[in-house]
């Protein structure tokens, strides 16, 4: 609707002046996949800080377990303990729309998560094993801060407002750790 009297009183079979801007945008959203993609992409982009914050808060324990498993499976480390310190950086590699429903949409986001852990372990790399006595000699107990990068797929959900042109991040629904490397 317009507040312009001339525009309101104008009558034409070609122009429909009865709709307001939000109704028009909602119609475009439903009928035009390019417009829909633009709105959803904008919502995703403006929500990235919230997604990163959720990754830091929700995945800390899993990142710690991942570092522990990496060290525990190394033959030169024994009696491993790991304490999570922090996420240093979350790099978004790419985000791809997974699904679009009437009120929700989801994204699959590939990230590189850089994080630090404090490790306590017995280092056997300079030790030697005495077969007769069945013990290690020369092992050393160490405390070290290790930095890792893990490539991760994050699956996240977003809600659409009723007008379909706005929305927000809801939650991380799942994740998958892929390649882990020490940096």
Overview of the molecule:
With 183 residues, the protein is of the alpha+beta class. The protein has one domain. The protein is 30% helix and 48% strand. The chain has helices at residues 5-9, 21-31, 33-46, 48-72, and strands at 77-100, 104-123, 128-130, 135-137, 140-160, 167-182. A four-stranded antiparallel sheet has the order 1-2-5-6, with helices on one face. Strand 3 and strand 4 (135-137) form a beta hairpin. The protein is rod-shaped and about 100 Å long. 17% of the residues are buried. The model has no long low-confidence stretch (mean pLDDT 85).
Can I get a quick summary?
The protein has 183 residues and is of the alpha+beta class. 30% of the residues lie in helices and 48% in strands.
List the helices and strands and how they pair.
Blueprint: H1 5-9, H2 21-31, H3 33-46, H4 48-72, E1 77-100, E2 104-123, E3 128-130, E4 135-137, E5 140-160, E6 167-182
Helix pairs in contact: 2-3
Q: Percent helix among the residues?
A: 25-40%
Strand order of the largest sheet: 1-2-5-6
The averaged pLDDT comes out at 85
Number of helices: 4
Determine Rg (CA atoms, Å).
27 Å
Biggest sheet, in brief? 4 strands, antiparallel
C-alpha end-to-end distance: 59 Å
Identify the overall geometry: rod-shaped
**Residue windows where pLDDT falls under 50 for at least 5 positions:** none
Provide the succession of SSEs: HHHHEEEEEE
> What fraction of residues sit in β-strands?
over 45%
Number of strands: 6
Query: How many structurally independent domains?
Result: 1
User: What structural class do the secondary elements suggest?
Assistant: alpha+beta
């Amino acid at each position: 609707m317009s507040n312009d009297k001339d525009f309101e009183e104008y009558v034409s079979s070609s122009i429909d002046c009865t709709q307001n801007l939000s109704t028009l945008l909602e119609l475009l959203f439903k009928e035009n996949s390019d417009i829909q993609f633009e709105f959803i992409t904008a919502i995703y982009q403006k929500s990235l800080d919230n997604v990163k914050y959720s990754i830091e808060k929700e995945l800390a324990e899993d990142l710690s377990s991942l570092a522990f498993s990496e060290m525990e499976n190394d033959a030169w480390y024994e009696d491993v303990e790991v304490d999570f310190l922090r996420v240093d950086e979350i790099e978004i590699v790419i985000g791809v729309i997974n699904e679009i429903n009437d009120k929700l949409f989801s994204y699959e986001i590939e990230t590189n998560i850089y994080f630090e852990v404090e490790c306590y372990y017995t280092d056997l790399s300079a030790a030697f094993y005495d077969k007769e006595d069945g013990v290690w000699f020369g092992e050393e107990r160490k405390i070290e801060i290790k930095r890792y990068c893990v490539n991760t797929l994050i699956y996240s959900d977003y809600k659409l407002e009723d007008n379909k042109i706005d929305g927000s991040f809801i939650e991380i629904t799942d994740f998958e750790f892929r390649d882990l490397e020490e940096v």
